[in-house]
Amino acid sequence: MPENKKKTRGNLAVMGRLVGLVKPLAPVMVAAVLLGVTGFLCAIFITVLGAYALLDSILPGMPISLGTVCLLLPVLAIARGVLHYAEQGCNHFIAFKLLALIRDKVFGALRQLAPAKLEGRDRGDLIAVLTADIELLEVFYAHTISPICIAVIVSAIMAAFLAGYHWLLGLYALGAYLVIGLLVPVAAAAVLLCFLTALSNLEQGRDDEGKRQLEDAIRRSAVACYAAEGIYPPDLAYLEEHYGIQIDESRYTVYYDIFGSNLMPDITVLENET
User: Helices 66-113 & 26-58, crossing angle to 10 degrees?
Assistant: First the structure.
């Protein structure tokens, strides 16, 4: 448990440092958040205005008439598309600028190490870090930071909007947002983690059982050889040739150490790393 907490704190520290890199581009990030909030409100109020229009046709005295709604709906729909495009443009501008900054920092560190301290290193791994691995950060900068901010702000605005009709509606909306946006993802992640842990333990158990069965089979064959011939087999090849032992060498490595023809060999089975 302490190791898991330490790892979590380490991950949060890394995320904090990554977010800190956005500071020089903070105005662009603020613009992305504002554009995203406005765009989502446009999308939400398309349905809200539709409800107003429906009620206006049934009940008189609604704050917005059917004609006004018909004029506003196309405007909101077009604005939603434009604002979403602008928001994504800001997000990707930030992402690609920061990816270039991170690559520059990595190249700077490599220049300080090269050439002597890079001898014997796998240059392919370094290229992978500079290309594919750093490229993965694009998802964090373009599709993580501002969407979280947008979700929080839009949820707060809509809860306040509903609370304007009745405070219980606002409280209900806030609770629903917390359940859908926080509790459900956390619960789903916990269930997925438990499933993956159980699956990993199951596979580990199968691997351990496979190693144990192979080791027992070799040991029994060695004992059978001693009973039939009066000596223990000199090597594994002898067991494979005369006693039908089959070893998947791509999966297991077997250490067969013999100390004498009348002494039980030391048998160790290890699983190869994949």
Answer: 160
Distance of alpha carbon 65 from alpha carbon 55, whole angstroms:
9
- b (16+ CB within 10 A) / e for 107-125: eeeeeeeeeeeeeeeeeee
Interatomic CA distance for residues 223 and 226, integer angstroms: 5
With contact defined as beta carbons under 8 Å apart, do 96 and 137 qualify?
Answer: no
Least trusted range by pLDDT, from 93-97, 109-113, 122-126, 179-183: 122-126
For residues 211 and 270, the answer to whether their CB atoms sit within 8 Å is yes
**Whether the bond into 234 is cis, omega within 30 of 0:** no
Reported as a single tens digit per residue, the pLDDT across 59-70 is: 776 677 778 888
Rounded distance, CA 32 to CA 94, Å?
A: 10
Residue 68 token pair: 């006004």
SS3 119: coil
**Rounded-to-integer distance, Cα 39 and Cα 44, Å:** 9
Residue with tokens 């580990």, as numbered in its chain: 204
Q: What is the pTM of this model?
A: 0.66
Q: SS3 of 176, please? A: helix
Domain boundaries, the chain: 18-165, 202-271
Phi, psi (rounded to 5 degrees) for 269? -115, 125
What single-letter amino acid sits at 62? M
